[in-house]
Design goal:
2 strands; 10% strand; globular; mainly alpha; single chain
């Protein structure tokens, strides 16, 4: 049986490889949509809009980083700002129709890629892998 330290080293190495592959794959799926941009768009879709400060807080990013990403997404007409109906001082970010279409296209392509990569995994392996990822991400550590 492997030692805990060996398993942790393997997990760290493989998650790093996974992140590198995800960044590279994002560029192939849509040339204008980085992994960070895709993630921000997906969050905006899930939340049905939010403030830039909410994005920065959720992803533990600097506000200037989010601001640059959002500016690029606005130039591409993927995101638009709308005044919050409850507080006229607040700007809420929303996907445009074009942003929704691009996000849906990329999400479909990503799903196909996962289906191909995991085609030889049986249902039990997929379910275990999914539950382990959920458990890991729910652990709440921000020191990754």
């Amino acid at each position: 049986m492997p030692h805990r330290a060996d398993s942790l080293d393997t997990i760290q190495r493989e998650l790093t490889a996974f992140a590198r592959r995800a960044r590279a794959a994002a560029a192939q799926l849509h040339p204008e949509l980085s992994l960070v941009s895709y993630t921000l768009l997906a969050h905006l879709q899930d939340q049905r809009g939010c403030r830039a400060t909410d994005l920065a807080a959720h992803y533990l990013l600097d506000k200037s980083t989010v601001s640059r990403q959002i500016a690029a997404l606005e130039r591409l007409d993927f995101v638009e700002r709308r005044t919050d109906p409850h507080d006229q001082r607040v700007q809420v970010l929303h996907l445009t129709d074009r942003g929704t279409a691009v996000l849906d296209q990329v999400a479909a392509s990503r799903r196909v890629a996962f289906e191909e990569r995991l085609a030889d995994w049986d249902e039990d392996d997929l379910a275990r892998f999914a539950s382990y990822l959920l458990r890991y991400n729910a652990s709440g550590s921000t020191r990754d």
